[in-house]
Amino acid sequence: GLVGLTGTGKTVTILHLLNQIKNLSDKFLVRYVNCANKTSNQVLQLILGETTTKSISDETLIKSFLENLDKENKNCFIVLDEIDRGRKLNNLIYVLSRINELYPHFQHKLNLILISNDLNFLDKVDPAIRSSLNLRTIYFEPYTKKMIKDILKDRIELGFKNEKAISNEQIDLIAKKVVEERQGDCRTAIKTLFYSAKRAEEDNREIILDRDIELMFSHAIKDLEKDRVTRLTNIQLFVLYSAIHSEDKQLRGIYNKYLEFAKKVRIESNISDITIFSWLDYLSQQCLIQRQIKLIKGNPPRKEARFIAKIKKEIVEEEVEMRLANIVKQEQK
Description:
This protein is α/β, with parallel strands linked by helices. The chain has 15 helices and 7 strands. The strands form 2 sheets. The protein has a 5-stranded parallel beta sheet with strand order 2-3-4-1-5, sandwiched between helices. The two termini are about 40 Å apart.
């Protein structure tokens, strides 16, 4: 399993390795699926390579896939990316992890690779499934300032006509801001570089100015935030919305705001405050929320946690409106 914050290179690393494995196509079949907002049935259809609107059971899809592997006499690598954002995939993970036990006639190897942005993903997996997986976990640490500078220099060498259009000091500035403000998310650095160069080019300038970087850093963050919000599951999005609109920004207030919101729009409300807290922790890992701890004097003293949104509420509200509209459409079908 590959675990790490967004922008730490998990997906790009595994895709690079899969491309190398594809050169051995006579021995291995490779399947990569992004599980975000997908059900087990949708994931299985993508693994099989045959999407359909017909109602086909998970078991039928699994058997078809195994039969194909037997016919081709191949082993298989299945990569499930953003597994933490799938919709009730625990049973699918269990079946894939014990494929040779559940289907004794299948004599080939199925290698399962899971990728998650949630640092606590494995702790949330059912113990029986976790035991079945017997995962070897690789943690992707956030990029350091030096790593980001090296990556930017490589991009400049490959993409700039004039490498002197940006100074070492400006490269250092981008890397410093990304490490300090974006937890080393390298995508922010790359987008900032791209947008800054584009802005200079549009202004017919041969050099990038410091003000380009400052402005385009904010633009890159907004761009990534919008993308990140659209990739949240409904419950993650609605918890973020509740945190933004909670008055006290504390767990109980956010929980009550979620219940109020759920009742108003008639969505699932049968979840505990512990569940809400776990999603707040996830949103914090994704740089969408900042958890602030305050020590309250007393005997004994106590800690008070507040969850402050680090994203513009307009982006969240716009996405919420779109999701609710989609829910209404699905109910009307």
